[in-house]
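Fresh eyes needed here. Have a critical look at this protein's tokenised backbone.
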Amino acid sequence: MKGPQVILVDEKDRELGLMDKMEAHEKALLHRAISVFIFNSKGEWLLQRRDTNKYHSGGLWTNATCSHPLPGEPNHDAASRRLMEELGIQCGLSALFSFIYKEKLDNGLTEHELDHVFYGVTDQEPVADPREVMDWKYTGFDDLKKDMVQNPENYTVWFKKIADRVQQSVEKTL
């Protein structure tokens, strides 16, 4: 049985086709992804700790949710869908920016993604899906940055790459 498919893209986000998600990560092929950052009304970041059974980066802290759009699914819809599926949160989301990154992971997979980044503000308390999320917390950016410097191994590779950029972008909009 085939697993979920991802949308292969070029550097300009033009669709090139579909591929099994695991195969795309094994072959390090560029594909479309989404990342969602949630803040509460105090400006604190909602972090989730990925379940240890995830296919990569299990047990690491990261942004509220991240995933891949389904074939034919708009990026914004994918972001809203995964936020609800993983954390039980429904809130308005706005696009921040997109970026491309390529990083080898410790399990033979490679993240090579054109990641569309969204954010939202809500004081709704998460109702986490335990198959996806083993823990969650709200934290201020200064405490987060300090912990990321002291314990970088506790955070996902993409989160470390864009945390500062997200903070700078969100500060301009809040």
Remarks:
- The chain has one domain: 5-167.
